[in-house]
Specification:
Elements: H1 4-9, H2 13-23, E1 28-32, E2 35-38, E3 42-48, E4 51-56, E5 59-64, H3 67-76
Antiparallel strand pairs: 1-2, 2-3, 3-4, 4-5
């Protein structure tokens, strides 16, 4: 049986981000390299294996290593 870590390892950080965004019904407006543009003027920059920087209107909001937490933040904001 495949472990969760092994399952996650098959995806790049950006692919994983896109899967989680889709699963949480957050529409992707566009993509450009390591940047993913979503609703409410948020940009998510893929920084590393499990590090994502959330930017809103040109200002860094926070780094996130928990995609679910970040997506919940976007949905509320």
């Amino acid at each position: 049986m495949e472990t969760e870590d092994a399952w996650l390892a098959q995806y790049s950080p950006k692919e994983l981000l896109l899967l989680v965004l889709a699963g949480m019904d957050i529409a992707v407006l566009s993509e450009d390299g390591n940047n993913v543009y979503v609703a409410n003027e948020y940009i998510i920059e893929v920084e590393g294996a499990s590090l994502y920087k959330l930017v809103h209107k040109g200002q860094v909001v926070a780094p996130f290593n928990d995609l679910i937490e970040m997506c919940n933040f976007i949905k509320i904001g």
